[in-house]
Specification:
By secondary structure, the protein is of the alpha/beta class. The protein has 4 helices and 5 strands. A 3-stranded parallel sheet has the order 4-3-5, with helices on both faces. A two-stranded antiparallel ribbon has the order 1-2.
């Protein structure tokens, strides 16, 4: 009889890789900067803890706005670890478009790169 085990999630894969290969590179960002599996797991867990402390519940949506970076990858993993869904927004799009996207998706909180602060100046709005 086939196993009735639920399928593995991205978080399950990260947990396993961090346990087996904590010192190996998990992500290589622009400019060659790297995060190991252990570092990625630790950072994503801190983000998940922050989200829980901010009142984010499983099933909530979290906005993520920023350029490609190691931090964005860790943020996406942290959002998933918290049981939430992420709403990626294009940081190069007009601020009004991103505010509409985040409002329409009823995001609970948003993570953004400091260069993207204008996106949220009048949000929610």
């Amino acid at each position: 009889m086939p196993s009735m085990r639920p399928p593995l999630s991205v978080c399950d894969y990260l947990d396993g890789a961090a346990g087996r290969s904590a010192a190996k590179p998990a992500v290589v960002g622009p400019g060659g900067r790297r995060l190991t599996y252990g570092e990625l797991k630790a950072l994503s867990s801190r983000i998940a803890g922050f989200l829980a402390g901010a009142g984010v519940l499983p099933g909530d949506r979290v906005g993520v706005i920023g350029p490609k970076s190691l931090e964005v990858v860790a943020t996406l993993c942290g959002v998933l670890e918290a049981g939430a869904g992420y709403v990626p927004a294009d940081y190069t799009a007009p601020a009004a478009r991103n505010r509409t996207l985040l409002a329409d998706c009823t995001v609970r909180v948003a993570f953004l790169h400091p260069e993207c602060a204008a996106v949220l100046e009048s949000w929610p709005g």
